[in-house]
Amino acid sequence: GGSVTAGNASGINDAAAAIIVMSKEKADELGIKPMAKVVSYASGGVDPSV
Q: What is the pLDDT of residues 5-47, one digit of tens each?
């Protein structure tokens, strides 16, 4: 529950994305041409007490 206000609502620049990850061999087997290659990733966060 709770209220949605201008201060806690999603901004106009918020978005979402999806990705399907599989091996090159599986993509070849299914006849799928890869559109991109994931070469690195990172994750970050801040302690909630900040």
A: 888 877 777 777 888 999 999 999 999 999 988 899 899 988 8
Contact 27, 34 (CB under 8 A): yes
Q: Which of 42, 20, 15 is nearest to 33 (CA)?
A: 20
- Specify the residue for token string 């090159």: 24
d(CA 20, CA 32): 11
**pTM score, two decimals?**
0.46
Q: Smallest Cα–Cα separation from 36: which of 50, 10, 49, 17?
A: 17
- Alpha-carbon Rg for the chain in angstroms: 19
